Amino acid sequence: MRRADREVTDINEILRIMKDCDDVVLAFNDESSPYILAVNFGVSEAQGEITLFIHGAREGKKYDYLKDGAAVSFQMSANHKLIMDKERGYCTMNYESIIGRGEVYEINDYDEKEAALEVLVQKYHIPSEKFVYARAAIPRTRVFKICVKELTCKAKA
């Protein structure tokens, strides 16, 4: 990272930034060109290991790339704010950004799927009680975890 003074290494701060991000952009290798995909996501951390969770319908182009063990790169950013200094004729942008790599795995176990979906729901909505899914919805939903292998986090405030 060129600007080491902007690097964020504290795991709690990285998780806070991830929770502030609206979506994650995934990047996959294709035979002819890169393939990117923006999706909503959930995030969990256990013993310093970060896992992202994504979901979708049963079919779609993204499943050509979401194969067990497949390499994936990702990017997310949040808290953008344009700062303008009209007197000096200068402007800059504040931001928080994460770029990383990981491996993707499909979750097929019903209970694991439900737990992963709960992580997703918790990111976007903090209910007063646990959301109860229709039993038929879980098998119709494909759920994946991305085991984060490396990431860099940068912030300018």
Automatic annotation (TrEMBL):
This is Pyridoxamine 5'-phosphate oxidase family protein. The lineage of its organism: Bacteria, Bacillati, Bacillota, Clostridia, Eubacteriales. Pfam families: Pyridox_ox_2. Coiled coil: none annotated. InterPro entries: Pyridox_Oxase-rel (IPR024747), Split_barrel_FMN-bd (IPR012349). PANTHER family: 5-NITROIMIDAZOLE ANTIBIOTICS RESISTANCE PROTEIN, NIMA-FAMILY-RELATED PROTEIN-RELATED, FLAVIN-NUCLEOTIDE-BINDING PROTEIN.
